[in-house]
Amino acid sequence: MQPTPHTQDDRGRALPAVLLPGARDARDARLTPVGHGYTREEVVELQKNRLRDAIVQVVAEEGFDGAGIKTICARAGVGLATFYEHFHTKTELLFAAYDAGVAVLFDYVSAAYEAPPEGTESIARTEAGILALLEILADNPAFATFLLVEFEKGGQEAHGRVEDALEAAFLLFNDVEAVGAFGAPDPELVPMLVGGIYSHLSRTVRIGRTAELPSLLPALMKFSEAVLAGAGVSTINLRPPTH
């Protein structure tokens, strides 16, 4: 028996159309004891989901350093023993929440990129993908803060996971075709483009303007088009000075 999908939490609050960790009340969908509808495996997955929701919420509210395991367990409505059945450390849970959310993000953005009819120019597909990213983050503000502001405080492995995600995002722009004034993306420029977008989104969330993320689309597209339009063309003299 699978948990019944719902569009409201247990307090009647509307949930986003696409859920990222942290969107639900971490105590929502209270567990039914084993033998009363759920298998043991389903109970374990529900407990892990509640812990993932809880760490995203607590980290978004208190910061990574202020998010203690006891506070996370209290938010999730599970005991410390249950926590340690599933995760060895807070950082392990941090990575589990990050991996789960990033997988949803990539699936959602990729689907938006692929949704336009065959023959649609790649730049229009890119716009659809960026808009999807902005909208899903705006709809999931706790995860946006967790992802873009707090996650990298988790240490070197967290930095590595972010680098892996950014490298995967490079593929979206590498797929843009040369059309009209737009050149094929320069592989050396794509990381700067993706990194620039990531940095701007991080700043927007950090200063408390997460709900405004979709309004960034025109500026981000101008930035993307400016980079792509000049791909492979440089007017900067990069030769070292002569003496």
TrEMBL record:
Domain HTH tetR-type: 45-105
A GO term for molecular function: DNA-binding transcription factor activity
Gene3D superfamilies documented for this protein: Tetracycline Repressor, domain 2 (1.10.357.10)
DNA-binding region of this protein: 68-87
PROSITE patterns in alphabetical order: HTH_TETR_2
This protein's record includes keyword Transcription: yes
Keywords per UniProt: DNA-binding, Transcription, Transcription regulation
Matching PANTHER family: HTH-TYPE TRANSCRIPTIONAL REGULATOR BETI, HTH-TYPE TRANSCRIPTIONAL REGULATOR RUTR
UniProt protein name: TetR/AcrR family transcriptional regulator
Species of the source: Nocardioides humilatus
